[in-house]
C-alpha cells in the first residue's frame, strides 16, 4: 500500500482572549467520565467521539430506557472458572474504568446485576478455554455489565460469543492480577439488523498480560471500544481486531491504550475489509504514554481493504507521549484496494484473477485470526470469511492512501 508523509503547518497567532472558544480536552486521559447517564448531554453526532457514528440508528441506546435485568447465557465448563450474578454494590465493579460517553453511561445506569466471571489460578499451569455465549437477547433495548476477574498467576482464554438479535449497550471490565495471562476473544456474529455498542475496560497489574481480539462479522451497527490501562510495571497488552463490513453495515472500533506503569509494552493491530454500497468502518487508535511510563514500547497500526465501490473506511491513529524516556513508539494507517505485485505473482502461476483477489483478502485477515490460539474457532472464522468473499465479486485495484510514523 502506498505510504504518504504528513507535515505540520505553523500555528496561527492566538486569538484575543475575548474571542477564544472553550479549551478542548488536550489529552485522552482528561476526558470526562461518569457512571450516570444524566451527566452527559444528548448525543448530536457533532461530538469528537461520535462524529463517525450513525447516531440516529442507535438513538434508543443513548437516550432510551433499557432493560437491565439478568439475561440467559451459556458457558462451557472449565476447572477454576465460575460465573455468578452480583449486585451493583460489588467492589469490583468500576475498578477497570468508567464511561466516557452517553451510551456506556446509559448501560451503567440501567443494569441491575453484573455477570461476574471468576478465573482462579491453576497450579498445573495449563491454559483453560471458556466460551460464554449470548444468543437470545432479543430486539428490545437492553443494558448489560460484565466483570472478568483473573487471579494472580492465572492463565485462560475467554471467548465472548455474540449471535442472534440484539439492541444492546454494555460495559465489560477485565481485572488482571499480578502475572495473570488472559486471552479474550470478543466475537460479533449478530443478525444483520442488530445494534451493539460496547465499552471494554482492562486493568493490568504488575507483570500481567492481555491479548484482546475483536472479530466483527455481523450486525447492522457495531461499535466496540476496547481500552487497556497498563498500571503495573512490565504489564503487556496486545489488542487485535478483524472486521468485514457488507452493504449498509457500520463497524466501528475506538481503541485506547494507557501506558501508566514503567517498562510496559503494547501492540495494536486491526485489519478490515469492506464491500457493498454504504459499507462503513471506523478505527480510531489512541495511545497515551504517561509521565511515569518510562521504558514504554508501543506500536499501533490499522489496515483496510476496500473491495467494491460505495464503501468507506476511516482510520485515525493518535499517539501522545508525556515522557522522553521510552524504548519506542509509533503508529501506521493505510487504506486501499490491492497490492498489484501480489496479484501479478498469483496470476503468473495460473490462478484466475478473481480467485487471486480472494486469496489476497483471505490472507490479509488471516494474520489476525491465526493469532487467536483456538484452532477450532480459527477454522470456523476462516470459513465465515470465505462465505463473505463468495457473496460478491472483488473489484479491480485502485489507488490507496496511508501514513506511517
From TrEMBL:
InterPro entries reported for this sequence: Fe-S_cluster_assembly_SufBD (IPR055346), SUF_FeS_clus_asmbl_SufBD_core (IPR000825), SUF_FeS_clus_asmbl_SufBD_sf (IPR037284), SUF_FeS_clus_asmbl_SufD (IPR011542)
Bias (Low complexity): 1-17
Family: Belongs to the iron-sulfur cluster assembly SufBD family.
Region annotation Disordered: where it falls in the sequence: 1-29
N-terminal signal peptide: none
Tree of life domain: Bacteria
SUPFAM superfamilies documented for this protein: Stabilizer of iron transporter SufD (SSF101960)
Entry protein name: Fe-S cluster assembly protein SufD
NCBIfam families: sufD (TIGR01981)
Gene name tied to this protein: sufD
UniProt domain SUF system FeS cluster assembly SufBD core: residue ranges: 143-364
Pfam families, sorted: SUFBD_core
Amino acid at each position: 500500500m502506498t505510504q504518504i508523509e504528513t507535515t505540520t503547518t505553523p500555528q496561527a497567532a492566538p486569538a484575543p482572549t475575548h474571542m477564544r472558544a472553550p479549551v478542548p480536552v488536550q489529552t485522552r486521559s482528561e476526558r470526562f467520565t461518569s457512571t450516570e447517564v444524566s451527566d452527559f448531554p444528548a448525543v448530536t453526532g457533532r461530538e469528537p467521539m461520535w462524529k463517525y457514528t450513525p447516531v440516529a440508528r442507535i438513538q434508543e441506546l443513548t437516550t432510551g430506557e433499557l432493560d437491565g435485568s439478568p439475561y440467559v447465557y451459556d458457558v462451557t465448563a472449565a476447572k477454576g472458572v465460575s460465573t455468578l450474578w452480583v449486585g451493583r454494590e460489588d467492589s469490583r465493579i468500576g475498578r477497570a474504568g468508567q464511561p466516557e460517553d452517553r451510551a456506556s453511561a446509559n448501560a451503567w445506569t440501567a443494569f441491575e446485576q453484573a455477570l461476574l466471571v471468576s478465573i482462579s489460578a491453576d497450579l498445573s499451569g495449563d491454559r483453560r478455554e471458556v466460551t460464554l455465549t449470548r444468543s437470545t437477547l432479543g430486539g428490545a433495548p437492553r443494558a448489560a455489565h460484565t466483570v472478568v476477574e483473573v487471579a494472580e498467576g492465572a492463565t485462560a482464554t475467554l471467548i465472548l460469543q455474540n449471535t442472534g438479535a440484539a439492541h444492546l449497550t454494555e460495559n465489560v471490565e477485565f481485572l488482571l492480577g499480578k502475572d495473570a495471562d488472559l486471552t479474550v476473544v470478543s466475537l460479533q456474529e449478530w443478525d444483520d439488523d442488530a445494534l451493539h455498542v460496547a465499552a471494554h475496560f482492562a486493568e493490568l497489574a504488575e507483570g500481567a498480560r492481555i491479548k484482546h481480539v475483536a472479530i466483527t462479522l455481523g450486525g447492522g451497527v457495531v461499535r466496540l471500544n476496547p481500552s487497556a490501562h497498563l498500571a503495573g510495571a512490565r504489564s503487556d497488552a496486545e489488542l487485535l481486531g478483524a472486521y468485514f463490513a457488507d452493504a449498509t453495515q457500520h463497524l466501528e472500533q475506538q481503541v485506547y491504550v494507557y501506558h501508566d506503569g514503567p517498562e510496559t509494552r503494547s501492540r495494536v493491530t486491526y485489519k478490515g475489509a469492506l464491500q457493498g454500497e454504504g459499507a462503513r468502518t471506523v478505527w480510531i487508535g489512541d495511545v497515551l504514554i504517561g509521565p511515569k511510563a518510562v521504558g514504554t514500547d508501543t506500536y499501533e497500526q490499522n489496515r483496510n481493504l476496500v473491495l467494491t465501490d460505495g464503501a468507506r473506511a476511516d482510520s485515525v491513529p493518535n499517539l501522545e507521549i508525556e515522557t522522553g524516556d521510552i524504548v519506542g513508539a509509533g503508529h501506521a494507517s493505510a487504506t486501499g484496494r490491492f497490492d498489484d505485485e501480489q496479484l501479478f505473482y498469483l496470476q503468473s502461476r495460473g490462478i484466475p484473477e478473481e480467485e487471486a483477489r480472494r486469496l489476497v483478502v483471505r490472507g490479509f485477515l488471516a494474520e489476525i485470526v491465526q493469532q487467536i490460539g483456538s484452532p477450532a474457532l480459527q477454522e470456523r472464522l476462516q470459513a465465515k470469511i470465505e462465505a463473505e468473499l463468495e457473496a460478491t465479486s472483488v473489484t479491480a485495484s485502485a489507488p490507496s492512501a496511508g501514513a506511517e510514523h
